[in-house]
Amino acid sequence: MMNKLYAITDSQLLPGDTLFTAVAAALKGGCKWVQYRDKSTDHPRRLSEAKQLLALCNQHRAQLLINDDVSLAQEVGAHGVHLGQGDTNALAARIILGSSAIIGVTCHDSLALAQQAIKDSANYIAFGRFFSSNTKPDARPAPISLISDARKVFSNTPIVVIGGITLDNGKQLLDAGADMLAVCHSLFAADDIAVQAKKFIELSVKGQD
Q1: Which residue intervals of 41-144 are DSSP H helices?
Q2: DSSP-derived 3-state class of residue 183
Q3: Distance CA 146, CA 29 (A)
Q4: What is the DSSP letter of 11?
Q5: Of 140 and 83, the one with more pLDDT
Q6: How big is the CA angle at 181 (ends 29 and 171), to the nearest 5 degrees?
Q7: Rounded to whole angstroms, how far apart are CA atoms 147 and 161?
């Protein structure tokens, strides 16, 4: 993994063309992982946006993953998909998207769900929320100790953490064993997104020390 910043878009925070300017800024700042997250049912718009984001990511040699929607990921040729527990399971997504696709799975606060995701061929497992979240305020909290517990059990699988992550609290998650920080509001609501992305990347480099 190039660095440990995993940017997640939000259709409420980034309406219209602000989506593209914001993601372009994050990529300029060095971000190499972007997840397109839009829960609407406007398929033509979602398809158009995903295609444009994929072009942006390809320009910066970054990965674009689609949140929840395996069909959309397949249609646009995205690099992968991120699945929740209520979505298509990783095994079915692997059959559809192929062996080279990146598949991540939300595991909340459960090592058992992580074990199943890995069995179903997930490339990474995601835990959280660890702090109060603007994007998912009702998500159940997970203890930071979960990260170190998961690191011991799943030593070869990348661990993504999510939920209210900021420049002030991210390092403790990296120190606990997280591989990537999934960030939405703290990145895309910043006054200068490119600078904010660089700061998160610097944080992740320090987390390796």
Answers
A1: 43-59, 70-76, 90-97, 111-119
A2: strand
A3: 30
A4: T
A5: 83
A6: 95
A7: 8
User: Rounded distance, CA 137 to CA 129, Å?
Assistant: 9
- And the tokens for 5? 């910043």
Name the pTM for this structure.
0.94
Assess contact for 42 and 69: CB atoms under 8 A. Answer: no
Closest residue by Cα to residue 179 from 196, 158, 207, 150: 158
Is 63:79 a contact under the CB 8 Å cutoff? yes
Sign of CA dihedral 99, 101, 102, 105: negative
* DSSP-assigned letter for residue 112: H
Which has the closest alpha carbon to 170: 138, 206, 123, 142? 206
What are 80-95's pLDDT values in tens digits? 999 999 888 999 999 9
User: 67: part of which helix (H) or strand (E)?
Assistant: strand 63-67
Per residue in 107-125, pLDDT (tens digit) is 999 999 999 999 999 999 9
Rg (CA), the chain: 16
